[in-house]
């Protein structure tokens, strides 16, 4: 649903996870698998080395987003050759942080004059980052609530039942 939200404001969106010295495709949205283009699920088969001078490396190194033409860095052609199909008109890429450390790169692009909703995508990304930052706290709260419920459930059967007087009198 994270990428679906982002994809509402662009033509295509993809998330690449940072793994050691490379970015590994996790999921795509809006990739058609038509005309030589890969499909959404095929993003998982793609990775990019961080030794290549791409927009992905740029946003991770600078810790800032990039919006502009698709060939801003010398090795950006690697991205579009792996995606297949035609080259987009504009791209918007931003780092995704968890606890202040870059963990992924969000890639979006546009075709045929459709505008990229930069602010909307930034808001969705920030909410995603915050939800992951707060996840350990949420898990602790849920664990405490479940422990409390379990303790209360365990107490009920052991409560002494009031004795009923027999009818034998």
Q: Name the overall outline.
A: globular
Q: Helix coverage percent of residues? A: 25-40%
Indicate the mean pLDDT.
85
Q: Care to count the β-strands?
A: 6
Q: Report the order of strands and helices.
A: HEEEHEHEEH
* Uncertain stretches of 5 or more adjacent residues: none
Based on secondary structure, the structural category is alpha+beta
In order across it, which strands form the biggest sheet? Answer: 3-2-1-6-5-4
**Rg computed from alpha carbons, rounded to a whole number of angstroms:** 25 Å
Query: What is the end-to-end distance?
Result: 69 Å
SS strand fraction: 15-25%
Counting DSSP H or I runs of 4 or more residues, the number of helices is 4
Q: Main β-sheet: number of strands, strand sense, barrel status?
A: 6 strands, antiparallel
Q: How would you characterize this protein structure?
A:
It contains four helices and six strands, in the order αβββαβαββα. With 169 residues, it is an alpha+beta fold. A six-stranded antiparallel β-sheet has the order 3-2-1-6-5-4, sandwiched between helices. The longest helix has 41 residues, at 118-158.
Task: Describe the secondary structure blueprint for this structure.
Layout: H1 2-7, E1 12-19, E2 22-29, E3 47-49, H2 55-62, E4 66-68, H3 77-83, E5 90-98, E6 101-110, H4 118-158
Antiparallel strand pairs: 1-2, 1-6, 2-3, 4-5, 5-6
